[in-house]
Description:
This protein has 263 residues and is of the alpha/beta class.
Amino acid sequence: MIRLGAVAYLNARPLVQGLDQQSERFSLRFDVPSKCASLLHGGSVDLGLIPSIEVTQRPDYHVVPDVAITSNGRVASVAVFADRPITAVRSIAVDSSSRTSVALLRVLCAQSFDIEPKFVTMQPDIKAMLKRCDAALLIGDGALFTDHDALGIEKTDLGEEWTAMTNLPFVWAFWAGRPGVATAEDVAALGAARDAGVAASDAIATEFCEGDEDKVEIAVDYLRDNIAFTLDDAARAGLKKFLEAAKDQRVVQLLPPLKYYEL
Length: 263
């Protein structure tokens, strides 16, 4: 049995569709992205749906090919919230659940926003974050469902900013693990779960937000329009460019070549 560690956010649900019914092949647990990575690094799970930046920490990791959480343009669920233009921000409270998003924000601050803000790691509570800093970075469901108009603040979408700067998609997360953990049959099963999840995305969104029609509408549009789940050639090019930019900004030290499990 392969122990899977998945992200608890809405955007991961299509990737795990039906996996809980394959108990002979997989066991499944849900955590925040940084915890998924820590569990994988510590050996508590065999495959983790980890933030893409994490592969720079473990050169031996292999990635499940063709399955990922990506965006091409507006992502909606990774954003900086502030009561001023992003170019006027001098301090940013960053979600402690995030690693890839913080790395992307550092790249964008240097290469697009032309600012050098102070970063303060905090729990994802937007009111507390904005009380302490000029801006707040939120990820996942917290960013997706925050009504910035009602709060009277601006929302800077990091997926949108990345694609505007590079004309490439952004890769937020993918399945990865140690060599030999996943067979071709396991990889195929993860791909089939992704296909089933994409086909059932409206139902997944409705169940995830059960009882809140406003959230259901947002979630349905999000899974249809903002998020993609394939690690295609364009996404791989975007990933390569991001990791190179992260190294240029000294967010990471090494750029090991990406390795993939066999199909």
